[in-house]
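Backbones bend. Shown next:

***
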Amino acid sequence: MATETDVERYGFAFDHRFARRLSILGIRPATCHLTLTSAGLHVRFGPWTVRTPLDNVAGAETTGPFTAWKVIGPHLSLADRGLTFGTSTAQGVCIRFHTPVTGLDPLRLLRHPGLTVTVTDPATVARRLNAVSRSPR
């Protein structure tokens, strides 16, 4: 069980140009975060969530910049079923999973092999996730 001392929480970087439109969907700074604990990875993006054990993280890398229509809001890639939770066009982290995760559809039928998130500190998040993905299973 995770304790207060082993919880790392990262907020999302909000671009003020898109904040009002995102808030209509329930996507606000108070409802968006990425949390790492000894138990797993939890991403909340307004009403959407992704949860997976840390041993399911295959790796992560920083990405961006992005075009707004490809990243702002919740997005599904038709090319690879990857999921994006985006609040900024500047930079993000692409997280890859060994086993695809759910997170977009309410019935949890769609599985996503990757998740891109526009957190405030993408380099640190990528570094932390890569450290976890390289640890012995």
